[in-house]
Amino acid sequence: MTMTETLHTIGRAPPPSFEEARNKRQKVRAAGLDPNHWYAVEYARAVPPGKVVEVTFWRRSVAVFRGEDGALRAIDNRCAHRQLKLSGGRVEGCNVVCPYHGWAYGGDGKLCKVPHELFGKPLPKIELRHYPVRERYGLVWVFFGDPARADATPMPEIPELDGPKPWAKLLVDFTWKAHHSMIIDNVSDFTHAYLHRRFRPFTDSTLTDLRVEGDRVYVSYDTKVADGPLMKHFVDRKRTNVNAMTLCYQYPYQWSDTDGKIKDWCFCLPIDEQTTRAFFLFYFDGFKIPGLPLQMPRQVMEPVLEIAKHVVFKPLLEEDGVAVEAEQDGYNRHWQAPIAELNPAVHAFQALTIRKWEEYLASSSGRLAEAR
User: Fold this and answer.
1) Would residue 308 count as lying in a domain?
2) How many domains, in total, are found in the chain?
3) What is the per-residue pLDDT for 370?
4) Which terminus of the chain has fewer CB atoms gathered within 10 Å of its CB, N or C?
5) Residue by residue, what is the 3-state secondary structure of 102-165?
């Protein structure tokens, strides 16, 4: 049962759709994300050769699989015969095979094999939709929009992770029962330091700059970064200015930068109107050895970050997860309540999300997709 059906069942009106929305908050909480961008959908290690997984973008199910040649492929997650999900099947060679009758599909979505009797008929000419797919930064990326636009559409560029001396990185993800806009609001709005009073990733924040440039919203804060009881011992405060941070909602992604030394990205995968998978990618120029004025060797940083993921980063972000899921529940109950948002940056994030969704809906591909 969907959230909308649940609310109807208990006699409560569900939040309005994007078309029904009457104010900014209602619009942003119903807006989708333009599919004509590259979206992180899974860890690359989660799709080894011979594996098929299901990923979902705005209620659209896609089967992502890796053939024995090591190449990734992505097609609609359904067998054209009886509509079973192909992700419930298996990979044979470079094809994905339906678990019911064994119909096999290639990465181009074309039916290539039917193992049972054809009853005197030729092999059906069936072609499922296929999607451009890439692998980068330890993640699988899918382009859910117009495939003709995929090559010309840039992915997030992270030069610090390319080349012979990449920075140490940490990847973590969560699936939260919350609209994607609530997550973008959360990660870029530093007025919620109270929530993180245990870990203190940022404190005493003051908004110093807010700029909207095209499809980007830049935000700067004067703040104390990484002031928590553990992380403050690893950050080299002589090399890094931890008293300011710049963030950007680079639609549909979000990133932050502390003095060019501590950086992160947030990649949201909108599963539906009230479910989002968020990938967080942190990367660091260097740590110091606690108690000593020495830089930590790069080969030691990855194991240290793996420990920090479970001790600091995951528990910290889990606090955000609890908050945004509670916000979604509150919105479902009180979506008619007056807007009481003080931070102008949040208003700018929301205005960008609404504008981009309106532009997509007005486009030819958007009109076609919504008509399906």
Assistant:
1) yes
2) 2
3) 61
4) C
5) CCEECCCCEEEECCCCCCCCCCCCCECCECCEEEECCEEEEECCCHHHCCCCCCCCCHHHCCCC
